[in-house]
Amino acid sequence: MPSINSLWPAPAADLTDEQLLQHYAMPGEDWLRLNFVASLDGAAARDGLSGALGGEADGRVFALLRRWADVVLLGAGTARLEGYDAMRLPDQAARWRTAHGLAAQPVFALVSRRLELDPAAALFAEAPVRPLVLTVAEAPATRRAALSEVADVLVAGEDEVDPRTVRALLRERGLGRIHCEGGPTLLGALLEAGVVDELCLTLAATLEAGSAPRIAHSPQAAPTAMQLAGVLRGGEELLLRYTRAAPPASA
């Protein structure tokens, strides 16, 4: 297991899993967290895959972060590119969750406007909890019907998925602790909608160049002030935690 040290705010060496989980504890039951990795020059992928950038420390934290989530949110395109299968946390993680008042397994939720998803795919067929698909009213009716056999399909907008509606629909189902694993288009939409509470960013010790995307992409800029909440180091990787900055006090 890769060693991870805390640099700030409380220096500590060789953190245990429990110490890491406390470092990343969500502050409440209504929270939207993002988890991404990027190179030193801002690339969010290598050869099209974000997983190719992360090292051992990133992988360790990636797995632990899911323990706090009621729901893991993901764009359908990212699920296809990264080869997601059914999301099943190991038994140890499931026991930890139930001991902390959470369901044994988080719900897996996919955002898809066109519903280009295979109902027979393992991420549906082998899921330990019935997944969710968040789509639009204009999505093809035949695809929606097919997916409804293996997932709960929720409408979150007319022709574009509205992140505010997504968050409200999840909250209505008791899924307020939202952990988002990508991709850049979904992150951009979440930022434009102003619904992001936290970013966990692994800074990989590599320079990539090329034409890789950034971690967020949207048609319009969406400046979102963040404040540093924690800095960990695992090998040459920095694992940064930022929370949304409080708005300035009105005059």
Task: Describe the overall structure.
The structure is a single chain. Helices cover 25% and strands 23% of the residues. The chain has 251 residues and is an alpha/beta fold. Strand 5 (132-135), helix 6 and strand 6 form a beta-alpha-beta unit. The N and C termini lie far apart (51 Å).
Summarize the structure.
With 251 residues, the chain is an alpha/beta fold. The chain contains eight helices and ten strands.
Features:
single chain; 251 residues; alpha/beta; ten-stranded mixed β-sheet
Report the count of strand segments.
10
Tell me the overall shape.
Answer: globular
What is the succession of H and E elements? EHEHEHHEHEHEHEHEEE
The order of strands across the largest sheet is: 1-9-10-8-2-7-3-4-5-6
Mean of residue pLDDT?
95
What class would the helix/strand composition place it in? alpha/beta
Strand content: 15-25%
User: Percent range for helical residues?
Assistant: 25-40%
Radius of gyration: 18 Å
Count of discrete alpha- or pi-helical segments spanning 4 or more residues: 8
Largest sheet: 10 strands, mixed
Beginning-to-end CA distance, first to last residue: 51 Å
Spans of 5+ residues with little confidence (pLDDT < 50)? none
